[in-house]
Amino acid sequence: MRQELGRLGPNAAMGDLLAAWEPAVGAEIARNAQPARFQRDGTLIVHCKDAIWAFELQSRASEIRGRLPERPPLRFVPGPLPEPAAAPAPAPAQEPPSVSPEGRRKAAEIAAAIDDPELRELVERAIRSSLG
User: Fold this and answer.
1) Using an 8 Å Cβ cutoff, are 20 and 70 in contact?
2) Strands 44-48 and 74-78
3) pTM > 0.70
4) Residues whose CB falls within 8 Å of the CB of residue 6, separated by 6 or more in sequence, listed in order
5) Per CATH, is 2-78 categorized as 3.30.300?
6) How many CB atoms lie within 10 A of CB 7?
7) Where are the domains of the chain?
8) Using one digit for the tens of pLDDT, what is the confidence trace for 24-67?
9) What is the DSSP string of 22-75?
10) I need a labelling partner for 121 at 20 to 30 A (CA). Which of 22, 68, 92, 129 fits?
């Protein structure tokens, strides 16, 4: 497979580089700068959110380069970034487990020693949930 990808030129190594990018630069930089392509001379072009990020990261290029596999020369430029991954859908709310009449009685019995009625109800519900 690497032999076939080698026919694509320098951009064949993008997969390995993309996998190493966030661990090498950290989450904050990865949100604001992403590798885009290799030039023919092997320089990695990194698209940044804006010119400020590009300037800042260009000043840290040698530090970042040292953390990347193959240590390619880097050039940071403003450019389009990939869309962030969609947040996973929230899990559907689960029905509370059903509690037997014996479990309800046991929960009420344990919580009965609590004087505060609001706290007693909360503790009783927690006990019922754990018994369910």
Assistant:
1) no
2) parallel
3) no
4) 12
5) yes
6) 7
7) 2-78, 101-131
8) 999 999 999 999 999 999 999 999 999 999 999 999 999 999 99
9) HHHH-HHHHHHEEEEEE-TTSPEEEEESSHHHHHHHHHTHHHHHTTSTT---EE
10) 92
